[in-house]
TrEMBL record:
Chain ranges passing through the membrane: 6-28
Keywords noted in UniProt: Membrane, Transmembrane, Transmembrane helix
Protein origin, superkingdom: Bacteria
Name this protein carries in UniProt: Coproporphyrinogen III oxidase
InterPro entries: DUF2489
Domain DUF2489 intervals: 17-150
Length: 164
C-alpha cells in the first residue's frame, strides 16, 4: 500500500523543497536590497559628515589667517578655534594635537563676554583683562606654533575631504 503512494510523496517533497527554495531566494533578494540601502545610507552619512567638517575647517582656516595677520586676538581666536575643533565629526583628540590652543581656551573660558562683560565693574574687567593678558603672554609662542600646524592640518584635511 505504501508502495502505491510513493510518487505522491515524492511530488509533495519536491513541492516543499521548491517552496523553501523560492522562499530562500526571496529572503536573499531582500537581504541584498537591505544591504544596498544600508551602504547608501552609510555613504550619505559619511558625505554629510565630510561636508560639515569641510565647512568647519574652512572657518578654521579663516580664523587662523586672521590670527596670523593679528586681525583677531589670540584669546578670541583660541576660543573660536577650540569650539570649532570640538565640533568636527571626523577627527578625534585634536586637543592632544594642538594643546596650546585648548590650554588658552581652558584658561579664559570662565571669563564673561558680551553683555555679561559690560555689566561688570571697571575693576572687575581690568582684573579679567590682566589675567587674560598674562595667559596670552605665557602661551603666545606655543599658540602661534600650534596655529601654524593647525593651518597645515586644516588645509590637508580640506584637500582630503574634497577628494573623497
Amino acid at each position: 500500500m505504501i508502495v502505491d503512494y510513493w510518487p505522491y510523496w515524492l511530488a509533495f517533497a519536491c513541492m516543499i523543497v521548491i517552496s523553501l527554495a523560492v522562499y530562500a531566494g526571496k529572503l536573499l533578494r531582500q537581504l541584498k536590497h537591505q544591504t544596498e540601502r544600508q551602504q547608501q545610507l552609510t555613504l550619505q552619512q559619511q558625505q554629510a559628515l565630510a561636508t560639515h567638517d569641510k565647512k568647519i575647517l574652512d572657518s578654521v582656516v579663516i580664523i587662523v589667517r586672521a590670527m596670523k595677520e593679528e586681525q583677531c586676538d589670540i584669546s578670541e581666536g583660541c576660543w573660536r578655534l577650540s569650539v570649532l575643533l570640538d565640533s568636527l565629526k571626523t577627527a578625534d583628540d585634536l586637543s592632544l594635537q594642538f594643546p596650546a590652543i585648548f590650554e588658552l581656551y581652558g584658561a579664559i573660558k570662565h571669563m564673561p563676554i558680551l553683555e555679561e562683560r559690560k555689566q561688570l565693574s571697571k575693576q572687575q574687567r581690568m582684573k579679567f583683562d590682566l589675567e587674560r593678558t598674562k595667559v596670552e603672554a605665557r602661551l603666545q609662542p606655543s599658540v602661534f606654533q600650534a596655529i601654524e600646524e593647525l593651518h597645515n592640518y586644516a588645509l590637508a584635511k580640506i584637500g582630503a575631504l574634497s577628494n573623497s
